[in-house]
Amino acid sequence: MQLTITRPDDWHLHLRDDLALKAVVADTARRFGRAIVMPNLKPPVTTVAAARAYRDRIQNAVQKGLAFEPLMTLYLTDRTPAAEIKEAAASGFVHAVKYYPAGSTTNSENGVTDLQKARVALAAMEQYDVPLLLHGEVTDSGIDVFDRERVFLDRHLGPLQRDFPGLRMVLEHITTQEAADYVRSAGPRVAATITAHHLLWNRNEIFRGGIRPHAYCLPVLKRERHRQALLAAATGDDPRFFLGTDSAPHARHTKEADCGCAGIYTSHAAIELYAEAFEHVDALAKLEAFASHRGPDFYRLPRNEARITLAREAWTVPNELPFGDRTLVPMRAGQSVAWRLVDPAR
Ligand code: NCD
Ligand code: ZN
Ligand code: ZN
Asked: What is the mean pLDDT of the chain?
């Protein structure tokens, strides 16, 4: 059996930099036409000039013959000036601004400490119609790690929408029923991305037979009922749920450590893993809308014209992949994936 769809895009991706970038970018470029590239480098990409330089490094790292367009983002800080947002809107290659609550996730130390401090930038984003992408979790040590997304919706997303009603927002990597419900009720300016790992795994995976650092990401995996709610959102008809892998490569030794990093690498089999998740609920016919139509529609970009073909042929994921002078452990390492990419789009 084969499945041919419009070439998809990845609306949430970590490509890192230097040797790591060179090691991973082909996995995405073979499958996706474009990707929204996260700005959480060290130091973060806070200016249009830095985003331009990063875009050039990405393009240089992509193998000749693969047509791949990185869509750049800026990292919002307490001090992002309105002028930077204006320049981003005019640049033609910066497509969004990313909000990380300070201390919430990998390389978020320079993120926003208090949304009030980012008001000038948020008002400019509303004015110039630059979407805000959110890592939607509170960071208080008193809030349970499994509740951080839900509490963020209650405390911050409602007020943000009230204060900046014209601002378009994408709640990234949603993990809960509450987030899916929020997006459904929030109107046309609010959308959400969903990862393959949150569609395929519930939180038991972190503790399956022992502690599994390669299943640790943020927001952390949730209960089965949340996974079911995400599947319903991804395979349903609401156009505001679309594909964002949040593929987040980390060297093996930084995850297999006394304090292991958050992030799961899925780019090596991204669209194949989504196909599996959709097939499990008999919704393969909905994959193209989720993966290839709704993202560009929300971002007001043309849909891709090229197509890709997947075959229902199982293959085994390697135990590890090269990652610069290190290695990384991809999702499904040593296990099989049911779908295989046939036709790398060129
Ligand atoms: C991401 C990373 O490693 O950059 N990690 C993750 O667990 N998702 C950061 C992020 O998207 O929050
Ligand atoms: Zn995040
Ligand atoms: Zn991410």
From this structure: 97
Q: With a 6 A CB cut-off, is 262 part of the ligand 1 pocket?
A: yes
Can you tell me whether residue 89 is helix, strand or coil? helix
Q: Is 40 near ligand 1, meaning CB less than 6 Å away?
A: yes
**Domain of 113: which CATH number?**
3.20.20.140
In the chain, the amino acid numbered 77 is T
3-state secondary structure of 192: strand
Separation of alpha carbons 170 and 100, rounded Å: 13
CA of 337 to the centre of ligand 3 (A): 23
C-beta separation of 19 from 325 below 8 A: yes
Would you say residue 345 has pLDDT above 60? Answer: no
Q: Is the pLDDT of residue 343 over 80?
A: no
Say if ligand 1 is within 6 A of residue 218 CB: yes
CA of 245 to the centre of ligand 2 (A): 11
Give the C-alpha separation, 169 to 174, whole Å.
Answer: 13
Q: What is the extent of the structural domain holding 190?
A: 2-343
In angstroms, the CA 67 to CA 296 distance is 17
Q: Which ligand is nearest to the CA of 244?
A: 3
Give pLDDT tens digits for 103-129: 999 999 999 999 999 999 999 999 999
pTM exceeding the 0.85 threshold for the entire prediction: yes
Ligand 1: nearest atom to the Cα of 12: 11
The residue annotated as part of the active site, out of 9, 10, 27, 246, is 246
Q: Is 27 tagged catalytic?
A: no
Rounded Cα gap, residues 250 and 345, in angstroms: 27
User: Based on the structure, what is the number of domains in the chain?
Assistant: 1
State whether the beta carbon of 249 lies less than 6 angstroms from ligand 1: no
Q: Is 314 exposed, middle or buried (0-12, 13-18, 19+ CB in 10 A)?
A: exposed
Question: pLDDT tier at 65 (50, 70, 90 boundaries)?
Answer: confident
